[in-house]
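User: My collaborator and I are trying to settle a disagreement about how two of our proteins should look. Neither of us wants to argue from intuition anymore, so we agreed to look at predicted structures for both before our next call. Could you fold the first one, then the second, and keep them clearly separated?

Assistant: That sounds like a sensible way to settle it. I'll keep them separate. The first protein:
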Amino acid sequence: MATFKAIVIEKAESGTKASLADFDEANLMEGDVTFRPEYSTINYKDGLAITGKMPVVRRFPMIAGIDAAGTVEASSHPAWKAGDKVILNGWGCGETHLGAYGQKARVKGDWLVALPGGMTARDAMAVGTAGYTAMLAVMALEKHGLTPASGPIAVTGAAGGVGSVAIAILAKLGFTVHAVTGRPQEADYLKGLGAAEIVDRKELAGPVKPLAKERWAGGIDAVGSTMLANLLSMTRYGGAVAACGMAGGLDLPGSVAPFILRGVCLYGIDSVMCPLDRRKEAWKRLEKDLDRQKLAAMTREIGLTEVPEAAASIVAGQVRGRIVVKIG
């Protein structure tokens, strides 16, 4: 049987172990589309899965990787044929279904989105789930009715993948963006993406007041926990926050005061099981509303062999922007 190279996570004596290994094509899971990933990326969840810091992986052995962009090799799904360029994000890949850090993947055709005509596979993975999630968050704030005239938007975890793309999108749409970060050395980078102001994360790290001084019309939060609670307490009357991450923790140590006294709304952003129509809209918007030069400025490329090291770095909060993985 044919084998291919993949980053495989296996059970170990103490937790799990991830390494580049040969994987038997016969052991791919069921699906009506087989495609060849050309590029993938590293998201925070990938980092958690590969390092074993959280129990992301639910079956073993598991090919890691929640994202891929590549070319269809074989399909019995009516929407896809050999040669089609496709994007995969989420749907349990790298968790319950064999993922994308490999030279071959088999998935359900209903999980795929066509690669936008104005994007390459590499572009799409420079965006990845982090950028696609950022776009979903921006769409939620727009649906709430926020516009550039509403006031500044705070973006937490600003130098990370979600934050970097969110800043670039919001700035292009005309919003005033305040980048919240614990890495002051990244100020020039964040301003280059479009941030108008740099906010030290310490300002949102202290004890949470039921209601603090109103600062922002809305926010995009990729951190969770105390930072999200403080952000909510500082959101202006009628504002909204889109929450999409938990790098700071799963808890929310706040109060109901922002919701019932200021009418603040909290939108939960899920990228994994997001309905197909919303996915298509998000990728269409990304093609149009994300500055490609800014995307390039926030992206670096690695190979499969470098994935475990990069995974450890992203969990440690040492990664700036986006990492593209060339499968090759």
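The second protein, kept apart from the first:
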Amino acid sequence: MKKRTIFSLVTLLGATLGMSSCIDMMESAHDASIVDPISVAIKVSAVTGFVDSDGNGEADPNFKPAGLNVRFVNYDEDAIIETTTDENGIAVADVTPGNYTISVTGNVEFEGATYYLNGSLQNKALMHDISPEEAAASQDYSMSIRPAQVGSLCFREIFYCGSPGYYFRNQFYEIYNNGDEVYYLDHLCFAQLHPNVATATLPEWPAEDGQNNYVYGMVVWQFPGTGQDYPLYPGESVIVAQEAADHTKNQGGTGEYALMDNSKVEFEAWSGNAQRNNPDVPNLTYVYWSGSVNTLQWLTSVFGSAFCLYQPGRELTYEDTSYWKLGETTQHPVGSSTEYARIPADQILDGVELIPTSTALNMKRIPGFVDAGAASVEAAYVNKSVCRKVIGHRADGTPIYQDTNDSSADFEVMTPPMHRRNGEKQPAWSWSLNQ
């Protein structure tokens, strides 16, 4: 009987405290300020030619920015709002005040070819109503997009994050011909872009470079050849490894954690340490080095770097001062003396942004027309890769991959990494087929 009395008193006390707590919470909620949504508009324009530092460019009448998908992402509030552009390229959305990453994706057909109209704005403060008229009249709320034609060459799979045990030497990059015509790899450049690690604080480039006219390479490698020595046919791929070695011999690990055997890839990117060079595997030539990385190895960030493929149309040479000239083919950020390769936007064949986690889109480094999104394996040293999604097959069984210039949508995470996982073919000239 005594125990029941104590229980009743405790229960009564708890109920009394609970009622008091609820009343306090209701009073606090009543006193809290209510955040009203705001209506914001963003203007999207398709431009051609040079875009100045204020975002002004010559409108291209061939590309109507209507029906494009527009996403407003607030990472602080974990909120995503989607809408579409109207016939004037205006997108309107109701959002709560805050900082947003705004991305635009879509495509148009022109003269029998498909062009992507992708773009993005990072860390945009939206704090008040913005009318369609205000967006159309102000560069602060507009986005100039450079149409990008769908190309044949693309990054198919990228293994960058390393393996358990802090092992990173088995990184590799597979480049694929996703088109319908032969592509010659001769003179093709493979660039790692600045900054090395994703960051929300991007470097400022000189005003004369304008806006989104260039990307900037911290390391640039070039494929060999004199013009038509290295054909890559539709459905074929080449693999570039950081170190072309059988890494299974260096460290344990089985199943999904097994290390890679990269000893039979087409090329390696090893820049100077003869003791680690594989004499059987041809080396890409490094033709530009910003000086901010160790020149005896090529280690891209295990947290995610950004890459692009581009075609300068000629053979390049490291430290060739007749070609590498400040303000022409190199550039340095404002307040820095370190020069980076200045790569024209219209030479870019494919670009991929890799970030620490898929929610870190506010840390994008490269323009949205190159890659409107980003891919991620979400962690380092987990033996995972990103691979494009298969959307079809050719008559010979080789895959056709999704390539919309939006890595958030185009790639999926794979465990473990794998060379030619979907039946891609090796080129006939591959050294490993001709031993």
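Some points you might bring to the call about the second protein. The radius of gyration is 26 Å. Residues 221 and 286 are 4 Å apart (CA to CA).
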